[in-house]
Amino acid sequence: MGEASGGSIYGDAEARRRRTLDAAAALLDEGGYSALTIRSVAQRSGTSTGLIYQYFADKQDIFMALLDENIVESTRAVAALPRDRGVAALIAAIIDESARRWGRLGRMSQIWRDAERPADAERESLRAVHDSGNRYDEAVLEAVTDAAAKEGRVLRDEAAVLPFLLSGMQGVAASIVNNWASYLDSDEFAQFSAAALTRAITRTDPAP
To answer: Are 137 and 161 in contact (CB under 8 A)?
Structure first.
């Protein structure tokens, strides 16, 4: 009986937390960060402000939890991409995935950069976001390294390779989503960019 009750309580707690995050995500989509307040989240989720404070310290903790979820989902998506079609095809697929998620994750990342303060560095939620971001970077690096090996290539041994690749992919994804190159076919643009990035970050494997 005790175990059943515990499971029910846990499930209810998780459901309330989920409703809180879903409500916060809707508010962000509709009105941006300024629309995200504990009161507005409580109203949207149909709960009390006191209950929300049981799970989150403030609205920034809610925001960080949403950002972390989106980064984790992006990491899983990258890890699931096939590696046997070559580096350019992999990069094009990551660009496509990034563009698909950019509507929320891109805006959230920009809000985070604008709102982040040195005093927040010790927040557990902020550390979680940083850790998830690092895991995303590692997933991209592993995927690209594997794809390169399958076509007899290696990544250039330079520290700038990963930051260059990440910024390049994010820039192309942002351009597609914001229609900054409306005169170009988005698929062709992504493929051209992926091929250019591949040439920049890889070389033929010198090993026999």
So the answer is: no
pLDDT digits (tens, 9 = 90+) for 18-44: 999 999 999 988 887 888 899 999 999
Residue 204 and residue 159: Cα distance in Å, rounded? 18
**How many degrees, rounded to 5, is the angle at CA 78 between CA 203 and CA 144?**
10
Beta carbons of 120 and 63 less than 8 angstroms apart: no
Task: Reduce the DSSP state of residue 154 to 3 states and report it.
Answer: strand
Q: Which amino acid is at 190?
A: A
φ, ψ of residue 21 in degrees (nearest 5): -65, -40
| pTM higher than 0.85 | no
Domains in the chain, please, with CATH?
1-56 (1.10.10.60), 58-204 (1.10.357.10)
CA distances from 53 to 41, 42, 115 (A): 11, 10, 21
Map residue 85 onto helix, strand or coil: coil
Distance between CA atoms of 186 and 173, rounded to whole angstroms?
9
pLDDT in tens, 139-154: 999 999 999 999 999 9
Range from 10-19, 47-56, 111-120, 192-201 carrying the lowest mean pLDDT? 111-120
What single string gives the DSSP state of each residue in 101-150? Answer: HHHHHHHHHHHHHHH--GGGTT-HHHHHHHHHHHHHHHHHHHHHHHHHHH
